[in-house]
Amino acid sequence: MTVALGIDTGGTYTDAVLVDHATGEVRAAAKALTTRYDLSIGIGEAMAAVFEASQRLPKSGRLRKSVDLVALSTTLATNAIAEGQGSPVCLLLIGYDRELMEQYGFQHELVTDDVVYLRGGHDVLGNEVAPLDEDAAREAILARRDRVEAFAVSGYFGVRNPTHELRVRALIEKLANLPVTCGHELTTRLNAVRRATTVALNARLIPLLRELIATVRQTLDEQGITAPLMVVKGDGSLVRAEWAMQRPIETILSGPAASAVGAWHLAGRPAVSSVERRDPSINSGHRVWVVDVGGTTTDIAALSDGQPRLNSEGARVGGWRTMVEAVDVHTTGLGGDSHVRFDRERRLLIGPRRVVPLCLLASEHPEVIGELRRQATAQKKGDELVQFVISWRRPANWLSDEDAALLHRLEAGPQSLASLIREARYGWLLRRRIEALEARRVVQRAGFTPTDALHVLGRFQRWNAEASRLGAELLAAQAGLPTEAFCEQVVRGTSDRVATELVSKVLEDEVGPPDWEREPSAAALLERALNGSRDEDLSCDLTLRRPLVAIGAPVEAYVPRAAERLHTELIIPPHAEVANAVGAVAGGVIQRLRVLISSLDGGERFRLHLPDGVHDFADLEQAVRYAQQVMFDRAEVQARQAGAGQVEVQMARTDRQAKIAAGWGQEFYLGTELVFTAVGRPSPARRWGVAGDSKADDLGN
Quick check: 269 pLDDT over 70? Predict the structure, then answer.
């Protein structure tokens, strides 16, 4: 028996699974808390736990040696972009108009302040508009090679002719020997500013992902595992670690992508839904909606025949719009660790802030039980109750004396927010300081969560239920409800939020994103659909016409009610709590290469834009045939470089034309796009670099 080891680092948990290659069966699964300050710690703990869980299996002693593939889904790239982290880089822009960039404020989208503008560049047809200023490029590289950790290069219309980017890359490799990323390597689409953003983000992430992969490999070595390591991309496919280290930007949103792939794998091809049985005109075409309820967020994505729908406009992370085609996911700050509290009008709020659940806090710091008891005895009210502040990680930058004093106090253990405010001269100022330190991820907050509500109701028991009950009693008293009734309200509110976000995603795809706060009539209809009409004359029902696959540890507590309210089929597959880790090893290797053919001289000639330059032909079909000769082999080699074994390559052709005038019937040729897709299963033999594929190795990095 050979097995694959799948690992997923989520916002709250890191999951690990062992999956039988032959049957696809999950042989063992385990969870560990994600250590955000150092992801490798949580990964190591999850790996150790999954092998411990496998001890009951036959021949478990040989299981480590049976692992022939390791796949990692990581939040590193997504979190680093969202939090503004990354290594220092220099961005070299070839042919960009500096005055125009500054006039329209585009320089704020370039990620780094270290930007060098070089003379050169091409036009939309790939013609050179100015010679490349190699002397200026050489000067910039030499001046920065000891101050940065990577270079990023983007040429104006570099996707139509990459020769200038390639020449600058060669200079960097010769003079600096540092990682370098070129814009044409990451996308073939036009948008000079977003391409520069994407290439700069990629360069910033290279050292971070290299460090993570090095520590993961060290952990694998300690476990005696010599299998190759692969990483999940944002489209759900796999690439070997060496490939991911060169293009870490492609791993953004790998967690939601892995969850979608894992949901399909665990659920199988869903049967015809009950809605379709009632209305045969509906045909899902093996399409489902996947809802992944985690500790920090809820992710919603559409699946068709096992593949997640991709966002062709490019993934957006942390305010940056990239040109990376990643899973089209709707993410909301709702999960088992969402902060439960009341607003000033005493309305119940759930999320979006993530906090440490009281039950988990008390299991690690039992002394907080005493503080919760004191708060219950005092019978006071206030939003600062049932909250604690915890030291998280050392600050990277300077701290004020007041902040330093607060962190020194937190070294003794968690402190209740109520006591900190009570002892401060200006409580409102302390609140702001704590919020600022939270934003810098220096401190963390603990409070009541849906996970605590489940502990009180006895539906989930993992940590200290007494802390959960004490917190629930304090909040229930403020709401004027019995403790259990308050907890039921929290669980019901979480379920209704899941349903609301699912409806929002469907509407966003079909008509546009809804704004429930500004559309009271729509919000009223949604409320009646989810909770029924009372004395109103108008009732409302909503029906989701595709099956719903729910994954994540707490889905059985929240999603059944949402599915019932939306009158849809609900599938909770076995091992739903570790579906992300299963998805990490269930994916295949997919590489897509796009090339464009444009018209020259009014259709007299045709220009083929390839990754190594442009080629002109007298006939369109001749250009297509040449592209096939070159790109079929290139796509296969690239898929093998990415870690595939046997590879199949297909080509899709799209000829774009426009009518000259209405009713004339004449069309004008705009261009042809050829998409070469190479698909293969991972090659689980041994680590690449030890004995790689010779054909793939010939093209180098």
Answer: no
